[in-house]
């Protein structure tokens, strides 16, 4: 029940800069995901909000109040730590009860029992009450840690990779539970993860961090459809987006894009207009594996000939890596696809879905029908807000 | 249960062989332990028998003597041994309390915070334990006489820190390093003040180490000889010094010395027996067992 704001926050550990002049604003009741690779400063950001780490520079505001000088215990935030941080000498029950027994959040023992029972059922840990943390598996510890976080009703939930050590099935249920709970509790949540599925499925908005800076801020679909640069494009989506070297040139009023893999095509007018404002003509074309069609028979107009480099079944689909001249393209294929290595295969890129990046800046330039795509990406968040109102 | 006919003789022979070696190793192990126990306990046994002998029988090496309590009467009632005993409790107990009060925060600081020359400071603290007491005792004696700490409780308690504090700091530093800082942070976020975090979370986790190193500190202080020999006079007497009084220049009352020593080790033995479980665990395991 509070918005959170960070203004120009810098946190250094000796010589390494963990977060660097970071500013972001998390709205009230928002499910906000901090996403990024290891060492991007996600956990440090959470700890600065929680107050257990002190930034060297910048302001942290919770609910409009500057909290830099407020003790962590008085900030009324609840946090799941990445390494669980369970109290080793206390039973599971006492661990979860701990926040409710503190001076600030004290409740009567029957109320505590009720609250813990409710949370434990949700987390499937009712049978573990008397165990000590060292008698639990990592997944169980993690659930206890989430339980200890959720048993309170704080202004803000801070969750540092809370599902990282759960098995895939439990992760999925838990994700749904968290999402539902967040809607029900009306609480601001900041959630750190490096799993893009988690980020996309849970987030109202995502901030992608790298080297302690916000690289891009937006909804999950914006990240996916209009990533700000190649770094973000690579983080979202499985298999990783294909980036193909290319260049464009204008010939007879047409803007032509020519790639190193033997494909040359005419850019759509909106793409052409955006490309012509660029200083350099070298590009990277970003195309996702599901926008590449493939066929084992005959080619034709627009089909490129390559060989199968690798074929990895991942359950509901097969990721086929195709060697096309100097490039390797990852293609999503149906899961009954059988391909021998080095077999000839023809692929066709859906050029309408290509994302254009500058080859030197690695920044996003444009995609076809950008307006339309980004309005769809916005819709999702708008729809959620409308639904709540 | 029926075993395979052909393999049964072989299997049972094997079993008997294995039982045999197990029994042998049990006997061997216990024999070794008994030997060690005799080796370790015999001096104590001998000392106790000495307390019960009269001076005339003192030098006989057989256990055949007429027991007498005259030594006990002479030492415990005839001299001010009890005064020294109580003063020793005050000095050693005070030294341990001061060590804990100062050492626990010091260990926490050395474990948690990064500051310049941290390792140098930690090593310097440890080096107090290496240095022979006799090396520093003369300057300390002169200084204590000047500043009026000679022959005072506080003077002894203070100087005992040299021998009691280093071990406690080093043991507890390891304990604090084992406790992840997130555990403290979690407790803060749960709504506990820093002292509540210490009492509810940290103290239970360092308890084995605290008990073990506290007991060792007590034993070091209780047994200290050089410091009270030089730094205390008539007002304060510890039992290590008092025991010496029974060795006079012309005659040695070994019976009296033995009584003094026997009474002196009693508190240590009782304390060690009570917390022997913690003692081994506290010095060999960390705070958070995996």
Record the SSE blueprint.
The complex is a heterodimer of chains A (389) and B (290).
Chain A lengths: L3 E10 L2 E11 L4 E5 L6 H9 L6 E6 L2 E2 L10 E4 L11 H10 L7 H15 L14 H13 L5 E5 L7 H18 L2 E6 L2 H7 L2 E6 L2 E6 L1 H6 L4 H6 L6 E10 L2 E6 L4 E3 L2 H8 L5 E6 L4 E4 L8 E10 L4 E7 L2 E7 L10 E6 L5 E4 L5 E4 L2 H19 L1
Helix pairs in contact in A: 2-3, 2-4, 3-4
Chain B lengths: L7 H44 L18 H8 L3 H32 L5 H13 L2 H15 L5 H26 L2 H9 L4 H30 L2 H6 L7 H6 L9 H21 L1 H9 L6
Structure description:
The complex is a heterodimer of chains A (389) and B (290). Chain A has 389 residues and is α+β, with helices and mostly antiparallel strands. Chain A is 29% helix and 33% strand. In chain A, the strands form 4 sheets. A 6-stranded mixed sheet of chain A has the order 6-7-8-3-9-10, with helices on both faces. The longest helix of chain A is centred in the C-terminal third of the chain and has 19 residues, at 370-388. Mean pLDDT of chain A is 88; it is low at 382-389. Chain B folds into 2 domains: 8-51; 73-284, Orthogonal Bundle (MetI-like fold), CATH 1.10.3720. Helices cover 76% and strands 0% of the residues of chain B. Chain B has 12 helices and no strands. Chain B has helices at residues 8-51, 70-77, 81-112, 118-130, 133-147, 153-178, 181-189, 194-223, 226-231, 239-244, 254-274, 276-284. Chain B is flat and about 70 Å long. Chain B starts with 7 loop residues before the first helix and ends in a 6-residue tail after the last helix. Classes of the chains: A alpha+beta (389), B mainly alpha (290). Chain A binds chain B through residues 14, 47, 50-52, 71-73, 75, 77-79, 81-83, 85-89, 98-99, 102-105, 134, 148, and chain B through 114, 180, 182-183, 185-193, 196, 201, 204-205, 287-290.
């Amino acid at each position: 029940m509070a918005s959170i704001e960070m203004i120009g926050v810098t946190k250094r550990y000796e010589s390494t800069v963990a977060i660097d002049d970071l500013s972001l604003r998390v709205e009230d009741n928002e499910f906000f995901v901090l996403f990024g690779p290891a060492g991007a400063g996600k956990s440090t950001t959470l700890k600065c909000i929680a107050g257990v780490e002190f930034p060297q520079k910048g302001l942290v505001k919770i609910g409009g109040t500057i909290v830099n000088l407020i003790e962590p215990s008085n900030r009324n935030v609840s946090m799941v730590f990445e390494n669980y941080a369970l109290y080793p000498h206390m039973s599971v029950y006492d661990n979860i009860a701990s926040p409710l027994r503190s001076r600030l959040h004290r409740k009567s023992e029957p109320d505590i029992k009720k609250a813990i029972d409710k949370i434990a059922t949700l987390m499937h840990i009712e049978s573990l009450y008397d165990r000590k943390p060292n008698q639990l598996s990592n997944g169980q510890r993690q659930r206890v840690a989430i339980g200890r976080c959720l048993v309170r009703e704080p202004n803000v939930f801070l969750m540092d990779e809370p599902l990282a050590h759960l098995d895939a099935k439990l992760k999925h249920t838990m994700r749904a539970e968290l999402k539902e709970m967040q809607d029900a509790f009306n609480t601001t949540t900041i959630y750190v993860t490096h799993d893009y599925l988690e980020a996309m499925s849970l987030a109202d908005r995502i901030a992608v961090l790298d080297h302690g800076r916000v690289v891009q801020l937006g909804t999950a679909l914006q990240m996916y459809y209009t990533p700000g640069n190649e770094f973000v494009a690579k983080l979202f989506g499985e298999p990783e987006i294909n980036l193909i070297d290319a260049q464009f040139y204008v010939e007879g009023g047409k803007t032509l894009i020519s790639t190193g893999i033997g494909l040359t095509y005419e850019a759509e007018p909106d793409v052409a207009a955006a490309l012509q404002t660029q200083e350099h003509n070298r590009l990277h074309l970003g195309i996702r594996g599901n926008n590449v069609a493939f066929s084992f028979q005959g080619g034709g107009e627009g089909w490129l000939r390559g060989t199968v480099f690798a074929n990895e079944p991942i359950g509901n689909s097969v990721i086929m890596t195709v060697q096309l001249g100097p490039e390797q393209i990852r293609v999503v294929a149906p899961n009954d696809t059988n391909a021998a290595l080095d077999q000839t295969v023809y692929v066709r890129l859906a050029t309408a879905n290509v994302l254009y990046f500058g080859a030197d800046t690695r920044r996003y330039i444009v995609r076809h029908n950008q307006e339309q795509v980004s309005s769809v990406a916005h819709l999702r968040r708008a729809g959620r807000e409308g639904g709540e109102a | 249960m029926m075993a395979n006919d052909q393999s049964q003789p072989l299997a049972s022979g094997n079993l008997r062989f294995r039982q045999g070696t197990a029994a042998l190793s049990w006997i061997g192990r216990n024999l070794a332990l008994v030997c060690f126990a005799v080796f370790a306990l015999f001096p104590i046994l001998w000392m106790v028998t000495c307390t019960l002998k009269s001076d005339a029988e003192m030098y006989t090496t057989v256990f055949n003597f007429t027991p007498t309590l005259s030594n006990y009467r002479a030492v415990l009632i005839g001299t001010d041994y009890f005064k020294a005993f109580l003063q020793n409790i005050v000095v050693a107990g005070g030294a341990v309390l001061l060590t804990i009060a100062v050492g626990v925060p010091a260990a926490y600081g050395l474990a948690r915070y990064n500051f310049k020359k941290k390792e140098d400071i930690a090593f310097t603290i440890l080096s107090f334990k290496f240095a022979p007491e006799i090396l520093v005792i003369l300057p300390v004696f002169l200084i204590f006489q000047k500043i009026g700490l000679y022959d005072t409780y506080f003077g002894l308690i203070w100087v005992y820190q040299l021998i009691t504090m280093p071990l406690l700091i080093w043991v507890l530093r390891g304990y604090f390093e084992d406790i992840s800082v997130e555990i403290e942070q979690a407790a803060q976020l749960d709504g506990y003040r820093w002292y509540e975090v210490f009492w509810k979370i940290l103290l239970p986790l360092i308890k084995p180490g605290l008990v073990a190193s506290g007991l060792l500190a007590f034993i070091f202080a209780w047994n200290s000889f050089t410091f009270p020999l030089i730094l205390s006079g008539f007002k304060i007497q510890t039992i290590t010094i008092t025991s010496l009084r029974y060795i006079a220049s012309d005659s040695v009352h070994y019976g009296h010395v033995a009584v003094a020593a026997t009474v002196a080790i009693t508190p240590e033995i009782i304390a060690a027996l009570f917390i022997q479980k913690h003692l081994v665990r506290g010095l060999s395991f960390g705070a958070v067992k995996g």
